[in-house]
Amino acid sequence: MKKILLSSAIAFSLLQGVSSAETFAKVNGDEITEKDIAALMRAMPGVSFAQLPQEAKDQVVNQAIERKLLIAQAKKEGIEKSKEFKNALESVKEDLALEVWMRQEMEKVKVSSSEI
Fold first, then answer.
1. What is the C-alpha to C-alpha distance for residues 54 and 87, in angstroms, rounded to an integer?
2. Cα separation, 7 vs 30, whole angstroms
3. What are the pLDDT digits (tens) for 83-94?
4. Is 24 helix (H, G, I), strand (E, B) or coil?
């Protein structure tokens, strides 16, 4: 369960940079955007939201709405103040720092045509 939560948090953090041009729904004043949909679609590798039939798209949007509501409830109940949350957040920060650093290092690598 902790690995799923950590993976979700990492994925969410990485998706912060994704453009959120389209709004699919609103929940308590919060918009359900492409970023929210992308977070759920990561569980279905190789499947594009645009390729889904309308019924499946509606289900994904409903899942995003449920997710927003659950997040709001967790925050309302003070999850962010719990020791377990703080420990998980620190772990995610470390994993994210490593991933961002590795991506930056990989971008520095230049391969010439002759080396290929």
1. 40
2. 23
3. 999 999 999 999
4. strand
Tokens of 80: 């962010």
The pLDDT confidence band at residue 73, using thresholds 50, 70 and 90, is very high
Look at residue 16 in the predicted model and tell me its pLDDT: 46
Reference 7, options 109, 91, 114; nearest CA is 91
Q: Which two tokens stand for residue 93?
A: 């920060």
Phi, psi of 27 (to 5 degrees): -135, 115
pLDDT for residue 37: 93
Nearest to residue 15, comparing CAs of 67, 84, 59, 53? 67
Which domains, from first to last, does the chain contain?
2-88 (1.10.8.1040)
Residues 6+ apart with CB under 8 A from 35: 15, 16, 18, 19, 20
> Could you give the CA distance from residue 36 to residue 65 in angstroms, rounded to a whole number?
9
